[in-house]
């Protein structure tokens, strides 16, 4: 399996340069540290996640179902990074970009975990473009009350946060692996007199 994944990545990174992508992994590692120190921290992904979260509410409001509308925010917030990662991996043949999307998904999972754990306390400041914020504006309160799981908000939130930390960590490991394959492919191309994707002329 590992050999097949390596071959799949190697086919897609021919001619790609590893070294100018490496600093991005350092930035992502720093962001991960921030989330580990405080899961409720803000990062460059926070505004993006919030934007897609609110878009999800708007999209699912057309169904006219309160539960679907409440869930729509989290569905979009988690689903968009997955769709973007699949698109980059398959259509754009960009496995490194896909690993960044996996990290993005991890940030969304941690954010969802923080939100879910707040279902009873409702201490987080909420943003709602659909009217005044009240007790029914908290998505996870609505969803967990519907299914009789409100008392488990802490456990559900913790599970989502753990999944997010795992996704971010694995994405960094995968990103390093992709860069190693790029470096090896670049070295091989140089030895054969080939050119990388930044060469011109």
Q: Using the alpha-carbon principal axes, give the shape.
A: elongated
Task: Say how many strands there are.
Answer: 0
Q: What is the share of helical residues?
A: 55-70%
Order of helices and strands: HHHHHHH
What's the overall average pLDDT, rounded?
Answer: 89
Radius of gyration equals 20 Å
Q: Tell me what portion of residues adopts beta-strand conformation.
A: under 5%
- How many strands, which pairing sense, and closed or not: the largest β-sheet? none
- Residue stretches low in confidence (pLDDT < 50, at least 5 long) are none
How many angstroms does the end-to-end distance come to? 39 Å
User: What is the SS-derived class?
Assistant: mainly alpha
Task: Explain briefly what this protein structure is.
With 201 residues, this protein is mostly helical. It contains 7 helices and no strands.
Helices, strands, pairings?
Blueprint: H1 2-12, H2 22-37, H3 46-60, H4 66-91, H5 95-117, H6 139-146, H7 153-191
Helix pairs in contact: 2-5, 2-7, 3-4, 4-5, 4-6, 5-7
Walk me through the structure.
The chain is mainly α and 201 residues long. It has one domain. Helix 4 runs antiparallel to helix 5 and helix 4 crosses helix 6. The chain is elongated and about 60 Å long.
Can you tag this structure with a few keywords?
0% strand; 201 residues; single chain; mainly alpha
């Amino acid at each position: 399996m590992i050999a097949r994944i390596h071959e799949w990545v190697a086919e897609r990174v021919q001619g790609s340069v590893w070294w100018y992508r490496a600093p991005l992994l350092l930035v992502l590692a720093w962001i991960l540290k921030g989330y580990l120190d405080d899961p409720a921290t803000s990062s460059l992904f926070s505004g993006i996640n919030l934007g897609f979260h609110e878009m999800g509410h708007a999209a699912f409001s057309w169904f006219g179902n309160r539960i679907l509308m409440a869930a729509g925010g989290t569905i979009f917030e988690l689903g968009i990074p997955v769709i973007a990662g699949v698109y980059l991996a398959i259509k754009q043949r960009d496995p490194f970009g896909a690993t960044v999307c996996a990290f993005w998904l991890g940030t969304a999972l941690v954010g969802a975990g923080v939100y879910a754990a707040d279902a009873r306390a409702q201490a987080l400041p909420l943003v709602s473009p659909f009217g005044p914020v009240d007790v029914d504006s908290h998505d996870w309160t609505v969803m967990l009350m519907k299914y009789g799981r409100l008392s488990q908000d802490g456990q559900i939130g913790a599970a989502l946060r753990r999944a997010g930390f795992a996704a971010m960590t694995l994405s960094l490991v995968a990103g390093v692996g992709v860069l190693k394959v790029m470096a090896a492919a670049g070295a091989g191309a140089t030895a054969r007199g080939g050119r990388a994707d930044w060469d011109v002329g």
